[in-house]
Write a structure and sequence with these properties.
The chain is α+β, with helices and mostly antiparallel strands and about 250 residues long. The protein is about 35% helix and about 15% strand.
Length: about 250
């Protein structure tokens, strides 16, 4: 009986109400006759006797706009709800909020409450409380600002496909953006060589009318980084490098 699918259970009930015998139902649904009989007996035992009204289900956790019946037990309230019984987590709301802001999971918060505060509630109550807190609190954000002339970001990307010399090719796009004003400079090139990179930087400096103090390299081939000024690299990780000084144009150009 426990292995019956929901569709099979519904089919057995429908055919039984239509007057089919257990043998006919079993033959129609390709089931064992005893399995059909067990299910129908269990269904009959679970239904109330004639003349007795079934007990209404107890209300679940309250949600906005839903009001429980007058004779029912009040639902357990969670963070942000008004009606219903007070959640056991309400006493530790400050600790739960601080832990959630640190990025801890509901499981970790529950374990800490049990260990440090002898919390007697369940993990599910903590999980609901944390979920409610997350829905009530806005997502944190940080604004990053730079002074004028302090920093620019350099990146290489891919351009659109074009026809050149009878062949379909895709150029590289050199892109520079000033961190303060967000003013940008773009140049399409065919190669990512050191000479090409330096020439693009020179053109960007001429377009901006100056040289920023710091140049942040987002994506540039590693051989260009190694050949330019390896002594000035402060960090090199996952193809990204941060230069402490400006990448000034080469001498004699």
């Amino acid at each position: 009986m426990n292995q019956l699918k929901l569709s099979q259970q519904q089919s057995i009930s429908t055919l039984h109400q239509a007057g089919w015998s257990n043998r006919a139902i079993a033959r129609e649904l390709d089931l064992d006759r005893e399995t059909v009989g067990k299910y129908l007996r269990a269904q009959k035992a679970a239904s109330p006797p004639p003349g007795v009204a079934a007990e209404p289900p107890k209300p679940a956790i309250s949600t906005p706009g839903v009001f429980p019946a007058a004779d029912s037990k009040p639902a357990i309230s969670t963070a942000g709800s008004v009606a219903g019984r007070k959640s056991r987590c309400a006493r530790w709301e400050a600790q739960i909020s601080a832990a959630a802001e640190q990025g801890l999971t509901a499981q970790r918060i529950y374990q800490d409450l049990v260990t440090e505060y002898q919390f007697s509630g369940s993990y599910q109550s903590v999980k609901r409380f944390v979920r409610r807190l997350g829905a009530a609190q806005p997502l944190p954000w940080r604004r990053m600002e730079c002074e004028p002339g302090l920093e620019m970001q350099v990146d290489f990307g891919k351009g659109a496909w074009i026809e050149a010399g009878g062949q379909r090719q895709r150029p590289h796009v050199f892109r520079v953006v000033l961190s303060h004003s967000r003013k940008g400079y773009s140049e399409a090139v065919w190669q990512q060589t050191t000479e090409t990179f330096i020439r693009c930087l020179e053109n960007a400096f001429r377009a901006f009318g100056g040289v920023p103090h710091t140049t942040v390299i987002d994506y540039v081939p590693r051989h260009i980084i190694n050949l330019l000024c390896p002594a000035r690299i402060c960090a090199l990780k996952r193809g990204k490098a941060l230069y402490s000084g400006a990448l000034a144009p080469p001498q004699g150009t």
